[in-house]
Amino acid sequence: MTAVQTPATGTWVPDTAAVHEALVAGARPKPQGPLAASATFGWRTLLRIKHVPEQLFDVTAFPVMMTLIFTLLFGGALAGTVDAYIQFFLPGILVQSILMITMYTGVALNTDIEKGVFDRIRSLPVWRPSALVGALLGDVLRFTLASAVIITLGMLLGFRPDGGALGVLAAVGLLLVFAFALGWIWTFLALRLRTPNAVMGWSMLVITPLTFGSNIFVDPSTMPGWLQAFVDVNPVSHLVTAVRGLMHGEAAGGDVLMVFAWAALLVAVLGPLTMRRYGNRD
Which residue of 211, 253, 265, 267 has the lowest C-beta tally within 10 Å? Predict the structure, then answer.
């Protein structure tokens, strides 16, 4: 570093003029745009898997256990045979497994806050929502991997989608859109709560009634009237109906549009609330 000696004291101090000249001599690097910044933070989310591969447990072992437990233990009792039940159940357990693991988005964000990484990220000269959007986009790969695991296992157990490969891909795509929108709930909780354990606890309180109080496991017609009323308005039920219909070639356009409407509503409401909290958090 360039330094000059002060005549009065004889000490050496930095030559501020030379430092300033060096800083302004070259062209400033162009800031990343919203898409590039979000992609960078998405890549950061994926690098966590590289350094902590145990994170893959929730997208591999957990879906396998859920599928096997409910299919093999309860399939015969609920539908007469495992083969008959897997046709109804697999789209539902696919939805439940993906939605359950979306909670880890909030847990990871709260962990960053607890470690101080949050403050460093927030100070960067990039599009403000990119850190949150990137984390949600990075998790899409984890959700895709979990979907592939569940569908492969279902095929081995006898699942045969009448909608073919295109129907399955459309169903997974619709599920990923809804999972991205649902992730805004967990990011909002991560910014409001103090610890990762608190985020996990409150997330379970939200996701458990949404998934178990739906048409994932059985036909709602067998439920009490008051529970049927809840299932009918449950956004997860609309999602399961749409995914089930796409996989079996029986999807109604209204079901798919309803899922997009719920996803848009979640982002429209929770996105601004989350960003407001993100910007004002002490």
Answer: 253
**CB-based contacts of 60: which residues, under 8 Å, 6+ apart?**
145, 146, 149
Structure tokens at 7: 């005549």
% the chain with pLDDT above 90: 39
In this structure, is the dihedral angle defined by the CA atoms of residues 80, 81, 83 and 85, taken in order, positive or negative? positive
Of 264, 246, 88, which Cα lies nearest the Cα of 254? 246
| Predicted confidence (pLDDT) at residue 99 exceeds the cutoff of 60 | yes
Tokens of 136: 């949600």
Q: Of 266, 261, 260, 236, nearest to 91 (Cα)?
A: 236
Beta strand pairing call for 3-5 and 12-14? antiparallel
The Cα 87–Cα 154 span in angstroms is 9
Two tokens at 22?
A: 């060096």
Q: Please state the pTM of the whole predicted model.
A: 0.82
Amino acid present at 124? L
DSSP one-letter string for 114-181: HHTHHHHHHTSSS-TTHHHHHHHHHHHHHHHHHHHHHHHHHHHHT---TTHHHHHHHHHHHHHHHHHH
Q: Quick one: pLDDT band at residue 19, thresholds 50, 70, 90? A: low
Going from the C-alpha of 253 to that of each of 36, 124, 180, 256, the distances in angstroms are: 34, 43, 21, 5
43: Cβ contacts below 8 Å, ≥ 6 apart:
134, 138
Both tokens of 124, joined, read 């960067």
